[in-house]
Structures are given as C-alpha cells and as structure tokens.
C-alpha cells in the first residue's frame, strides 16, 4: 500500500493540465455564482453549485498531492456546507471572504502551474473562512475534571453548595467526590461550553487559586468512520449471489450487449485558434474561387448555395457571446466601487449577443476602460447622490444588441454626467478652438482628444495612459464608432458600435477612374444617375445633391462621376459620385492592418474574383469628412 | 473480451485518473459525467462493475446506485461509490440503496484494483 | 507571370555552416545587402499592386498574397536611387517581420550565403543608403562586401510608414 496514491499513478503530470483547466472553469463558475448571490435570499442551487465546484477542486488536488490547495478548499467547503444547509446565514462578509479565498486558490493553481514564482500566503483567507464557519456552530462543550485541594481548611459549606449549584447552571456536573475537610479534596467533573479561564475565576471565589487544578477530560469522539474503504457486502457472498443471478439472466444479458458507445463526453471539443483561423481563411478563398467560377462559366445554384452555407457555418464557429467580455464587469465594478467608497450596482443585458472572436478580443480593453470611467469619474459619492435626490446606489448598465450589420454596446451610468463648462475650460487651456454656440454633441467630441481629461486627478484606477482617444482609435480600427451622450446631473451614455463580423459582408462594387472599389451594401441607401445641373454648389463647402427633401453633401473620388450612390452612416448621409455600378456580391473582408496600417477612408480590402485587390471604402469617413481646406486631404476623396 | 467498467464523476480529472488506473490493469473503461448520463450508458450495455462519485449534478451517486439496482441486469454487478464524503449517515444511505462498497477519495490505486478484482463480474 | 521561389531553410552540411548564419543577399543600387534568411518568406516577380492614394510614393500599394493583403515597399524609391523600373525581371522579396508580411522591391536577388562569425565585422560609421541604425555589420565573402541589415527594424521603423505606431500594442 503506497503512502502517496499520486505516486502510484506514475507520471501524474499528464493529469495536471486537465486539472488546471478544470480548476479554472470551476473557479470562474464559483466567482460568477458568488457575485450573483442575493444575501437576503440565497439561491440554494447556486450554493450547491459553488459547493460542488470547490469540492471537485479539493478532490482532484488531493489526488495530485497539492496539499495546500486541499487545505484551503477544505475550509472553504466547510463554510459552504453550512451555508447550503442553512446552518449559517449568508451576508456580505461571507461572500467577500469566499471571493478572496477563490482568488487565493487561483493563485495556488497558478503557482502549481508554474506561472507564479512562489505559493501565495493563504493563511489570511483560511483564517477568515474558518472564523466565519466556526462563528456559527456553538462551541462544543468540553469536559473538565476539577480538583480543589489539598485544602488547608474546609470550605464554607454554604459557599461550596452555591458554587456547585452555580456550576451546574453553567454546564453539566458529572461525577463528584467531595472531601471537604482539612487536608481533603473536592473533586468533580464538569461539562462546560465556556472557557477554562472563566471556570477558574469562579472557583477562585471559593478557594485559593493555587489549590485549583483543572484538567481536560478527553472527549470520546463521536465515531468517525475514516476507513478508506467499507464493504457492504463481502466478496464471497457477492460472488455466490452473482453466480445465481447470472444463470438466471444469461439470456437477457446476451441480447443486451451492444457496441461500446464512444468514450468520454464529447458535447464540446477544444480547437486551437490557429486551426479555426486557417479554416476561415480557406473557406474565404473558396468563396472567391466560386465567385471566379461563376463569373467565367455562369454560376451553379447548388454550388453557390453550399458555399454560402459553408461560409455561414464556419463564421458561426468564430462567433462568441459577448458574455465573455461582460462577465468580468460585475467583479470589476464591485471592487472599484468598494475601493472608491461608492455604491454602484451593475446591470447587464444582451449577454447572448454574439460577436466574432477577433472582435471580442479587441473590444475588451476599450469597454473595460469605459466601465471604469463610469464608476470612477461618472459616479458621485453616496452622500452627494442623496443630496441630489438620487438613490444612494448608482447604476451602471451595459447592454449589447444587434442592429443590422452591427453590434451596438451601450455603457450607461446615472451619475453626474459630463460637465460642459469644465470641458470647454479645459479645451481653452489647451488652446483648442471651439466655435461659439457649439452643440453639446460637438463639445463631447472634445473628450476624445488625446491627453484630454477633466478628472481632477488622474486616478490610479482609470488613468493609466489609456484615454478616450485610444478607446476611440481602437474601436475605429475595428471599423466601429463611439458616441457620447450626456445630461448634466443625470448621467452619461457611451455608445459603441462595431461591425458584426470582421470577415464577410454583402457589398456593392463600383468603378471610379477605372479602379474597382467596394461599399458595404448595408450602408448603401440607393443610387441613381444625376445630371450636372442637379448639383448645387455652396461656396467653400463643395456641392450638394437634392434627394427628396434633403440636401446631401457630395463626395468625389475623381473628376467624373455621373452616378450618385447615396450612403448612410450613424452621422448622416452623403452622395458619393462614381463612374459605374459594377455589381453586388459577398466579399471577404481582409484587414489592411494586419500587415499594413489603418488608412483613413478605408475599412479594409478584399480580393475579387480575378485575384485583384479592391479597397473597401469607409462610409462613416465619407459621410463625415468635410473636405475643406483645413483638413488633411482624404486619401481617396477630393 | 476484457471486462468493462463504468466510471462516473463530474470532475474530468478525477475520471481520467480512475480510468487510467483501471485501464493500466487491462480493464476497458467508459466514462460518464453525471448520474443521469451514467444511467443511460448503463442501459445500453451491461458493465461488469461501476465506480461512481456521489456529489454530481442531475443525479447523484447514491441515486444512481438505487436506479441501477432497479435494473435486473445490474443485480449481480458491483456498484462502488468513490467519494470524499465518508459520513456515516451518507454511507448508510448508500448501503440501503444497494451499493456494494464505499471508498474514500483520494483513493489508493492499489486498493482500488484489489477491490475491483474481487468484485468484477 | 510570376516566378515564385519558396525558400526552405537548408540543413547545415558542414561544421562551418552550422556555426554561421544564413543571409539572403540582394542588390540595391551600387550596394549589396544581406538579410537574415529566417525573415524571408518567399521571392516573387513583380505584379502591379493596388495603389492607395495618400500613401507615400515608395509604398506602391497592396497585393493579394494567397488571400492576405500585403503592402509593397519599393526600397529603391525609399532610398532615392535613380533607377526604378518594373518589368519581368523586377524582384519582390516577401518578408515575415514583426508578425507581419510585407514585400520589398529590390534591383536583384543574388543568393543565399552563410557567414561564419569571423566573416562579420562591426558596422562602419559612414553610411550606406540605409541609415546606420539599421546596419548590424559588414560581411565579407571573398571579394564581396555585404551590408548586413536589420530588416525587421528597418521595415517597422517610423519613416517606413508601414506600421501605425500610435495604436501599436492596442
């Protein structure tokens, strides 16, 4: 029989990887369940879930010989057991202690994994959990054996009687042998929940302290079965019974033997990101090849359809629910608020909204920054809120939804809102020129300027050199937009919009000066031929085109251009003049930035059926660019 | 044809460890992640022995044992519970449900093999 | 009409080769340069890139390299050399540097050489066409003098304008 079961498993390191992965998942689940617990009415299922997760980690850690993890999770488990049985009430201290313990376990795992140089100090977390767990159970009564003597002179009988009666009230008086005479002893056993010191002081009222001897009687422990194995049926008996039973059901058994089912639970498998990306790329090329084929030889409807379906299916693999990003916010808000002495609740919705995984990675940092801002700069202190007639706790709500070809994420707070005057003052300080009577919207835009911060102190929390300018740039590099809206005293809303997927869009291809350009179809409203006389010039502001009741700015990419393509973005519409409308097709969006850099005016490139590269125009840029002398000339627009 | 054992535990690493120990000794092993899944598996083929954890979602180990005892084919199949919990009350429940034995986690691979050898059909 | 050469890194055959480093050599104007072979992905012939207005003259545009968009920089224009024509003999070296794929246009590619440590001398003070910052040493191979360039540093430098330094590491 080996002392360490883990040794018997031979090289256990193969199991380590599985254990670490599992532990990560369990810990994530523990954290998320803990954060969602409502102390007033804790969900039994949730408590059970947390218990099971910690229990699992403990079991596996034990097998692998990770003693320190077993130790901490054991205490953790004890508290959880009390909580789930209702023997202990759940309140904030318990949740906090458990969250902290979860963090320590995470560090313990990291240490075992090799990503931390030394094991974390778990004593604090362990002590906290132990204290909370023990606080609930009444201290078990302990048995004391008391000896008073040898007595110099007898104790006053009445006093002795009173003392014994008093002790009987405090606990349970057991066997006694009282020899209350000079040279004699008073002996008795006492079962008490109090401390020995208290007992001693009571006794000292009656006799000289030096004559008091208190010994503990070892508690006969309730029989705990710590046998590692208990058989309910002896092997021999079992075999005998089995023999009989077998003979009876032989026939049935034969019929029941079927081919073994596949091993393991394969409801989901892990695939490396590189493999997925490669798959996406290959399918993208297939799409292009199919388009080429269609161009040359006419399309085969079945092939078209299959290619399209394959494309959708592969893109779906890359889609990840945005909860992957949202999940970190509750903890972030909670800790931040605590640190800053504010009370903030967080609400999230639309967690199921799916985004391309590449997108998820890139919006995580900007969104995190926005949430930090909301708590740090946006939210007032509780007293200030009450003074303003607001509820004591502020709310930060983060919502995600899909609108057309984009995902829209809103970070809204009900805090103090943007201070227009402060911003204007800061702008003046920095020598920025702000037109008189600028709209609120234009003033908010100033916040996006590099180095702009009206915060009194760049707090450790949000001021890490990541300003709103970087947030906007990051979002824009994804082909998205950021907008601010705010009402003084009521709160601020930041709206982030990013394309649904980086990879494939429905497009309209146009020709300008012999070159092919691509416009996202979702942004094209309509197109038509226009005569020169339809274009009205406005001095210093280029031309406009009347479309029904609107006068839209005209944008040109070349000299000619008799066809107007009306395009629309979040900020409005414009008429883009082109030479010809070539067609409509799906294109695979290729990033310009992976090997090159972001070019203003372009949101990417694509590879056409003939293998040539066509540039994808950035509609937001087309619409909002003024094109006047002060701004830098557009790369593709004039 | 080698003897087949069903290993049930919601903790993947635990399952793998038990499976490895048993496979190394020549048994063919199938795994299930909870009691419900195990019951379904057990209905598609009759295993020669079942090792199950107790604390699992959907259906716990003791309930699984009870359910399996309700199947005539499992009359003579040993059902061993392997759990970190060793409280007398729970063990009694296991015994009443029809478990053949109760083993504590962390388990000693040698001990496990001994038991399996003695009880495998 | 593209010639494509894929370069596999050869196994060292002799002890000298095992010790030395391999370089791809190419001509740019009057000089011969050497760059680490590991940075070279392939060599292609010239194809007209898709131009992007508003980018410097030496960035010719982007091409489609088996489904990836790759920018092409004409080093001859960047370093102000006189001749820069584009015909069937024009060579484009596709590089893999700093996790990007970029292409450079040079006059001609020579060969792959191995230089033992003794054959490499420290960089001179006077400049070649390339800024001294990007020169790691001088290699001598018989009569030839090779300017060994840190092609990764060069291609990612600010004035090559290939990399957006503001959002790097974003």
From the alpha carbons, calculate the radius of gyration of chain B and give it in angstroms: 13 Å
Which residues of chain A form runs of ≥5 with pLDDT under 50? 1-8, 220-226, 251-266, 456-465, 627-638
Output the strand order for the largest sheet of chain A.
Answer: 15-19-20-18-17-16
List low-pLDDT spans of chain B: none
Provide a descriptive summary of the structure in words.
- The complex is a heterotrimer of chains A (638), B (121) and C (170).
- With 638 residues, chain A is α+β, with helices and mostly antiparallel strands.
- In chain A, 42% of the residues lie in helices and 23% in strands.
- In chain A, the strands form 5 sheets. In chain A, strands 15-19-20-18-17-16 form a 6-stranded mixed β-sheet.
- In chain A, strand 16 and strand 17 (543-547) form a beta hairpin.
- In chain A, helix 10 runs antiparallel to helix 11 and helix 13 packs parallel to helix 14.
- The N and C termini of chain A lie far apart (85 Å).
- Chain B has a single domain (4-119), classed as 3-Layer(aba) Sandwich (Rossmann fold), CATH 3.40.50.2300.
- Chain B has 5 helices and 5 strands; from the N terminus they run E-H-E-H-E-H-E-H-E-H.
- By secondary structure, chain C is mainly β.
- Chain C has a single domain, classed as CheA-289, Domain 4 (OB fold (Dihydrolipoamide Acetyltransferase, E2P), Beta Barrel).
- Helices cover 8% and strands 44% of the residues of chain C.
- A 6-stranded mixed β-sheet of chain C has the order 1-4-7-8-6-5. Chain C has a 6-stranded mixed β-sheet with strand order 9-2-3-12-11-10.
- At the A-B interface, helix 1, helix 2, helix 3, strand 5 and helix 9 of A face helix 1, strand 2, helix 2, helix 4 and strand 5 of B.
- Strand 5 (229-231) of chain A pairs antiparallel with strand 5 of chain B, so a sheet runs across the interface.
């Amino acid at each position: 029989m080996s002392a360490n079961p883990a040794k018997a498993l031979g090289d256990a390191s193969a199991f380590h990887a599985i254990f670490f992965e599992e532990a990560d998942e369990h810990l994530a689940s523990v954290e998320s369940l803990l954060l969602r617990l409502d102390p007033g009415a804790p969900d039994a299922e949730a408590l059970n879930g947390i218990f099971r997760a910690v229990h699992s980690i403990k079991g596996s850690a034990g097998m692998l010989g990770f003693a320190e993890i077993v130790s901490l999770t054991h205490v953790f488990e004890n508290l959880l057991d009390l909580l789930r049985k209702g023997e202990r009430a759940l309140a904030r201290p318990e949740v906090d202690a458990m969250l902290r313990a979860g963090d320590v376990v995470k560090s313990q795992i990291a240490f075992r994994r090799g990503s931390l140089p030394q094991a974390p100090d778990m004593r604090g977390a362990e002590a906290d959990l132990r204290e909370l767990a023990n606080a609930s159970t009444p201290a078990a009564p302990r048995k004391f054996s008391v000896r008073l003597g040898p007595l110099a002179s007898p104790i006053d009988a009445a006093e002795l009687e009173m003392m014994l009666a008093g002790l009987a009230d405090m606990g349970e008086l057991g066997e006694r042998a009282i020899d209350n005479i000079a040279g004699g002893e008073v002996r008795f056993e006492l079962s008490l929940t109090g401390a020995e010191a208290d007992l001693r002081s009571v006794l000292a009222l009656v006799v000289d302290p030096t004559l008091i001897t208190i010994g503990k009687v070892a508690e006969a422990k309730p029989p705990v079965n710590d046998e590692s194995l208990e058989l309910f049926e002896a092997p021999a008996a079992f075999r005998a019974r089995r023999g009989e039973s077998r003979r009876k059901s032989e026939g049935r058994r034969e019929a029941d033997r079927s081919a073994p089912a596949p091993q393991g639970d394969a409801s989901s498998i892990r695939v490396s990101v590189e493999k997925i990306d490669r798959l996406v790329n290959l399918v993208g090329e297939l799409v292009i090849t199919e388009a080429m084929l269609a161009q040359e030889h006419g399309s085969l409807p079945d092939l078209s359809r299959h290619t399209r379906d394959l494309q959708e299916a592969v893109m779906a693999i890359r889609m990840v629910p945005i909860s992957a990003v949202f999940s970190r916010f509750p903890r972030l808000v909670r800790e931040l608020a605590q640190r800053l002495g504010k009370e903030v609740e967080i609400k999230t919705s639309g967690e199921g909204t799916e985004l391309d995984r590449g997108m998820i990675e890139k919006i995580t940092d900007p969104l995190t920054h926005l949430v930090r801002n909301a708590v740090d700069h946006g939210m007032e202190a509780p007293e200030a809120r009450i003074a303003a007639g607001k509820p004591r706790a502020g709310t930060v709500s983060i919502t995600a939804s899909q609108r057309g070809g984009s995902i829209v994420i809103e970070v809204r707070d009900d805090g103090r809102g943007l201070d227009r005057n402060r911003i204007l003052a800061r702008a003046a300080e920095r020598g920025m020129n702000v037109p008189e009577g600028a709209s609120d919207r234009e003033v908010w835009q100033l916040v996006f300027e590099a180095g702009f911060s009206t915060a009194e102190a760049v707090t450790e929390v949000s001021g890490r050199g990541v300003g709103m300018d970087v947030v906007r740039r990051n979002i824009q590099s994804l082909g998205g937009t950021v907008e601010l809206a705010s009402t003084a005293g009521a709160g601020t809303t930041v709206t982030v919009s990013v394309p649904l997927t980086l990879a494939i869009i429905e497009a309209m291809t146009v020709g300008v000066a012999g070159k092919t350009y691509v416009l996202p179809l979702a942004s094209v409203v309509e197109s038509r031929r226009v005569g020169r006389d339809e274009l009205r010039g406005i001095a210093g502001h280029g031309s406009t085109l009347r479309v029904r009741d609107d006068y839209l700015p005209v944008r040109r990419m070349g000299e000619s251009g008799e066809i107007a393509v009306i395009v629309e973005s979040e900020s409005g519409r414009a008429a883009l003049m082109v030479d010809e409308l070539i067609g409509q097709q799906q294109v695979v969006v290729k990033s310009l930035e992976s090997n090159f850099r972001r070019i203003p005016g372009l949101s990417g490139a694509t590879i056409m059926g003939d293998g040539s590269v066509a540039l994808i125009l950035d509609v937001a840029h087309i619409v909002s660019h003024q094109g006047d002398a002060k701004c830098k000339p557009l790369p593709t627009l004039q | 044809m080698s003897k087949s054992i069903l290993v049930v535990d919601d903790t993947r690493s635990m399952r793998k460890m038990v499976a490895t120990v048993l496979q190394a000794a020549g048994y063919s092993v199938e795994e299930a992640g909870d009691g419900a899944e195990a019951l379904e598996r057990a209905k598609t083929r009759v295993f020669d022995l079942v090792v199950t954890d107790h604390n699992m979602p959907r259906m716990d180990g003791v309930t699984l044992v009870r359910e399996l005892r309700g199947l005539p084919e499992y009359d003579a199949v040993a059902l061993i519970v392997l759990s970190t919990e060793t409280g007398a009350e729970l063990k009694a429940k296991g015994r009443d449900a029809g478990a053949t034995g109760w083993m504590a986690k962390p388990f000693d691979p040698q001990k496990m093999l001994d038991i399996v050898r003695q009880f495998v059909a | 009409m593209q010639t494509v050469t894929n370069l596999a890194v050869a196994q060292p055959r002799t002890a000298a080769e095992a010790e030395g480093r391999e370089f791809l050599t190419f001509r740019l104007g009057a000089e011969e340069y050497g760059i680490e072979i590991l940075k070279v992905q392939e060599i292609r012939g010239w194809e007209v890139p898709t131009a992007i207005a508003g980018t410097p003259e030496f960035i010719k545009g982007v091409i489609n390299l088996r489904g990836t968009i790759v920018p092409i920089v004409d080093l001859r224009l960047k370093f102000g050399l006189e001749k820069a024509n584009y015909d069937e003999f024009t060579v484009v070296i596709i590089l893999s540097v700093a996790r990007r794929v970029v292409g450079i246009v040079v006059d001609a590619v020579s060969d792959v050489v191995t230089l033992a440590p003794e054959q490499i001398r420290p960089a001179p003070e006077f400049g070649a066409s390339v800024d001294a910052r990007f020169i790691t040493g001088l290699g001598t191979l018989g009569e030839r003098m090779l300017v060994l360039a840190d092609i990764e540093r060069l291609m990612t430098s600010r004035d090559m304008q290939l990399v957006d330094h503001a959002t790097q590491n974003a």
